[in-house]
Protein 1
Amino acid sequence: MLVGAALLVALIAGPLLARVAVRLASGDAAARPTAARVAVMTAVLAGLLAGSVALLGLRPGTAALAWAAGAAVVLGAVDLLSHRLPDRVTYPAVAVCAAAFLVDALVLGTWPALLRSLLVAVVSFAVGVGAAMVSPDGFGFGDVKLLGLLGLVLGWFGWGVLLTGVFLGLLTGALVSLVLLATRRVGWRSAIPFGPPLLTGAVLVLALGAVSLT
């Protein structure tokens, strides 16, 4: 029943998120997504929402994963289209996820997970700032904020989950870059967005079940 409800929400929200993504990417308030983009984003959202409820069931923490899923779909699409990760998507996602985890702690007593989540978010953000200072052309502050969001969400499950998720994200990015280079779709100096690979790594680590609610 929960998975069915998640799929219904995706069918409703998917087209709306696709429209938001193309408008944020283009800066055109009247822009409309193609039917193919709507279909792909709706399908991805459906998978993420179904995975969220399958992973946690019906509890406040699920709302954090669901909101993060919607934000991930929009952020990934915008980054692919315009190499930007809009604050108007990232900031609300951080606020909603933190609030949902707080409610989960109040209702179910998951205080250790909440405190760890906040600590990991701060550490992830700090590491991202360091990376941006070392390589400002390769790692922008949109990526830094995304890393903070991923730290908040994955950190709720554990430090190891975050580290594995980031590793899988970097590995995904490297493999995609090699494929693009081999097919001459990009050059050695082409800018490759970090957002989609990092988001993919986060999804993969949760899908693989490398989680701990302690």
Protein 2
Amino acid sequence: MNHMVEELTEKEERIVQLLSETGLNRNIAKVVVFLAKAGEAVSRDIERAANLRQPEVSLAMKDLKEWGWIKERELKKKGKGRPLKCYKLTRDLKEIVSELVQNKKEEIKKIEKDLEELEKLVGLK
């Protein structure tokens, strides 16, 4: 485990921004982009790198697990306390982005069709 937590680069921040503009929750976008870079990370590292609070990371993980985008494993800790959970994406960033782009393009086509029908119905076309 690498404990040097790198913050997101400008390019990665831009990817986060664009993902959230397409409708993906911003915190989820941050987690996905960070995990795509880190490979695998514990909650605390994700919090630091993505600049999120623990509850925000937990909520993002809940959705990501439901969608099947991440898997978790427990790391045994020395001594007492709850084991640490380690997270990893189940697919790469390209696959995730590709799926989101496809969904948005279909949404746009449907909206364009609806707008065209609306214009015809009110006599604009």
Protein 3
Amino acid sequence: MRSRILAVAAAAAALVVVQPGPAGAAGDPSTTETFTVTSGALTLTVPASANLGSGAPGTVISAPIGPCTVTDDRALLSASWTVTAAETDFVNGTATIPATNATYTVGSVTTTGTITVTPTNVTLSNTAQTVLTGTAGVGDNTASWDPTISVNVPAGAVGGTYTGTLTQSVA
């Protein structure tokens, strides 16, 4: 009886070992699969123009300029980028209000994808200054904001329409 139990146990063990695994039998054909994840560019879109409004000498004229968006389609494992802003002096004929009389306030930033964004409000000047930094990005991402430009109009400002150029860039 004892030998019969051992024989049954040995046969059961042999059945478990003999059963093929999920990979199939040796010699089954296999297919190597490949694909490409495409990548694009790092871009910045900004409004073409903005009217900040009007105000008397000695006041502050302030308005949002419209949506600005960084689009990072580079599909990087470790993405980062920086947005800078520079302002020309505001000119009305021969009258000038210096760029340093203006401030750039980033406001709320909305993102998509994986990116950590740090805004920096600045007093504008003719020299580019960092206003937004994106770090710890993975894959494609975007950041959108609607900055407010405020201009301190000097008490001695001459009346008329002043024009300046805000140049923003991303790298």
